[in-house]
């Protein structure tokens, strides 16, 4: 082992939509965490692994903290808070464009209780505001918590992101390389594929649909040494939602399938057949048994 090797775990926390997933993708350089302009996009904590000759940083993208309204919501908030306990550095991310809000106070109260973790304040989306406004924002937050570092960034265009990564290294303990050079996420391939499909649903549908669906990859197989066939299933809560997802003459589902297939092919580096089925599973977001089946549970 390289004697100067450093490694550790870093979690990102912040209100929904502040840009956590965007930052993760910017650092890791692959589309591993889905992004959308609708809130509550990320449901399970996702790890992204950054590896260099002398550093490995395992990033945990949390679902975001908000007031839960369903059992799925409860699970999302719980799992975000829990990740804070086991990491070396917490990145508390705020939106420069929106400024201080109630949701931030909820998180700050949790951060104050942390004793062993370093905490950075990341002011994200600075591309949207005038540089002069950054200072006032920094003051608002640093009055409340003593941060180890305060870094204005743009997760979207990458501004200051290398600085952030270099600073993170300084705060990590000496440690081994936990994951191989080419591992960029702990998530299974199936999970990543289902997220690419879910992202398209979020993108093309409105209002209640995005948050009331779940996507599963049911099978993946290569037939006759030709293209890989991927069979996936979208679960909705009501038949009206199923109708919207399928669309007139199946147009909506075709569009979702076409766009998802492009991303999947890019990720896998090969052509695939993608089949998507839609099924109604009444009120799945409030059914503990189904949440467990779909992987939203502490017991893996
Ligand atoms: P999350 O809910 O915290 O994971 O937020 P996302 O990463 O999904 O981002 C939410 C929205 O903010 C997306 O539309 C992003 O493109 C946008 N966004 C993220 N970072 C930036 C940034 O630095 N600048 C701008 N202008 N938009 C950003
Ligand atoms: Mg996210």
SSE blueprint:
Layout: E1 6-13, H1 20-28, E2 46-52, E3 55-61, H2 71-83, E4 89-95, H3 102-112, E5 118-124, H4 131-142, E6 149-152, H5 161-171, H6 189-204, E7 214-222, E8 228-236, H7 239-246, H8 251-268, E9 272-280, H9 288-293
Bound molecules: guanosine-5'-diphosphate (GDP) and magnesium ion.
Describe the structure in your own words:
The mean pLDDT is 83. The strands form two sheets. A six-stranded mixed β-sheet has the order 2-3-1-4-5-6, with helices on both faces. The chain has a three-stranded mixed β-sheet with strand order 7-8-9. Helix 6 (189-204) packs antiparallel against helix 8 (251-268). It folds into two domains: 6-171, P-loop containing nucleotide triphosphate hydrolases (Rossmann fold); 189-293, K homology (KH) domain (GMP Synthetase, Chain A, domain 3, 2-Layer Sandwich). The relative contact order is 0.14. It is α/β, with parallel strands linked by helices and 300 residues long. 35% of the residues lie in helices and 22% in strands. The protein has helices at 20-28, 71-83, 102-112, 131-142, 161-171, 189-204, 239-246, 251-268, 288-293, and strands at 6-13, 46-52, 55-61, 89-95, 118-124, 149-152, 214-222, 228-236, 272-280. Bound molecules: guanosine-5'-diphosphate and magnesium ion. Magnesium ion (MG) binds next to helix 1. Guanosine-5'-diphosphate (GDP) binds at residues 14, 16-22, 35-37, 41-42, 64, 124-125, 127-128, 154-156.
């Amino acid at each position: 082992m390289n004697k100067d090797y450093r490694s550790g775990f870093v979690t990102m926390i912040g209100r929904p939509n502040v840009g956590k997933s965007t930052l993760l993708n910017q650092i890791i350089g692959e589309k591993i965490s889905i992004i959308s302009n609708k809130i509550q996009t990320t449901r399970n904590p996702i790890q992204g692994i950054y590896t260099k000759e002398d550093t490995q940083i395992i990033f945990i993208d949390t679902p975001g903290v908000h007031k839960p309204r369903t059992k799925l919501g409860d699970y999302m908030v719980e799992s975000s808070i829990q990740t804070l306990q086991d990491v070396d550095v917490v990145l508390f991310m705020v939106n420069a464009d929106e400024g201080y809000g109630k949701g931030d106070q909820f998180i700050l109260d949790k951060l104050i209780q942390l004793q062993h973790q370093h905490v950075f304040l990341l002011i994200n989306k600075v591309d949207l505001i005038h540089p002069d406004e950054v200072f006032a924002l920094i003051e608002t937050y640093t009055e409340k918590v003593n941060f180890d570092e305060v870094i204005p960034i743009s997760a979207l265009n990458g501004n200051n992101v290398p600085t952030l990564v270099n600073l993170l290294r300084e705060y990590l303990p000496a440690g081994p390389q936990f994951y191989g050079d080419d591992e960029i996420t702990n998530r299974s391939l199936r999970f990543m594929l289902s997220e690419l499909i879910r992202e398209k649903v979020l993108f093309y549908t409105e209002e209640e649909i995005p948050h009331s669906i779940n996507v599963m990859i049911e099978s993946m197989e290569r037939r006759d040494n030709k293209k890989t066939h991927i069979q996936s299933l979208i679960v909705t809560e009501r038949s009206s939602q199923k109708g919207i997802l399928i669309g007139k003459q199946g147009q909506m589902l075709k569009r979702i399938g076409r766009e998802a297939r492009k991303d999947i092919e890019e990720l896998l580096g090969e052509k695939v057949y993608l089949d998507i089925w839609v099924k109604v599973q009444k009120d799945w977001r409030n059914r503990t048994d189904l949440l467990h089946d779909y992987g939203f549970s502490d017991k893996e």
